[in-house]
Amino acid sequence: MITPYPTLKLLTSIAGLASPIALSPIASAETARAATAKMPPVNDGLPMPGFAIDPATTAIVITDPQNDFLSPKGVTWGVVGQSITENGTVENLEALFKVAGETGMPVFVSPHFYYAHDHKWEFEGTLETLMHSIGMFDRPHALTLEGFEGSGADWLDLYKPYINNGKTVVTSPHKVYGPETNDLVLQLRKAGISKVILGGMSSNLCTESHMRELIEQGFEVMVVTDATAGAITPLYNGYDASLTNFRMIASAVDNTDNTVKAIKAAYRK
């Protein structure tokens, strides 16, 4: 019999023993609430396995922290801007980068780049077709940074000090949505990482695909629900679609403020 948990708990690992930190104290009688970008779920009928932040084995993974998603000048801002603004995604991703720098938690960035030869593919899915048609994440080829600075493929300026600090691991690019086509899993395993705190863009595409594949590969994953965002069109809401799947698939979901507090607590032990 599955008994739903009343609130999200992140766990910090201390000398091999996990002690719970209740990040959102909630009375057991509180009305049921689904997960939102800013709030974890309450009495929603699903179990909450929890997530143990062990400094020795936990890393932050950020997908696509790039201009074409996160800058108002990016080619997708017209459809992702509302979700990014409402969730505070830009600021929340910086908060994750910042706490990693303060504590020494490893950070891995899984970027999205398209080279000239990628535009010669003979078939594509719906949004692959769109991304290629608008020149999203375009670079000439893998062996040059010509035209990279300030382009849509470049990092958001706000994140450059964190990504270019000599410590952050930037993997090879994923090509569709998930990490099956890059070396993220290899880099995580070689670094001794088995637990992932996940954020980045875009929620129902690359972020969700990374969550799914990392879980299939045996990693424990929590998603920071306001450190991501998705496209909203007149007929579809990509963020809402991903939020349901984050809740149903990941070990835990929570907001940035609670996640930052939990990371700091884990590193104080």
How would you describe this structure to a colleague?
The protein is α/β, with parallel strands linked by helices. The chain folds into two domains: 1-48, no CATH class; 60-251, Rossmann fold (3-Layer(aba) Sandwich), CATH 3.40.50. The chain has nine helices and nine strands. The strands form two sheets. Strands 6-5-4-7-8-9 form a six-stranded parallel β-sheet, sandwiched between helices. Helix 8 links the parallel strand 8 (220-229) and strand 9. Helix 3 (89-103) packs parallel to helix 9 (256-268). The longest helix has 15 residues, at 89-103. The two termini are 35 Å apart. The model is unreliable at 1-27 (pLDDT under 50).
Poorly predicted runs of 5 or more residues: 1-27
What does the main sheet amount to?
6 strands, parallel
CATH architecture tag of the largest domain:
3-Layer(aba) Sandwich
Order of helices and strands: EEEEHHHEHHEHEHEHEH
Helical coverage, percent range: 25-40%
Question: Structural class of the helix and strand makeup?
Answer: alpha/beta
Which CATH class of the largest domain?
Alpha Beta
Question: Helix and strand layout, with pairings?
Answer:
Blueprint: E1 9-14, E2 17-22, E3 51-53, E4 58-63, H1 67-70, H2 77-87, H3 89-103, E5 107-110, H4 126-133, H5 160-163, E6 169-170, H6 184-190, E7 195-201, H7 203-216, E8 220-229, H8 238-249, E9 252-254, H9 256-268
Helix pairs in contact: 3-9, 7-8
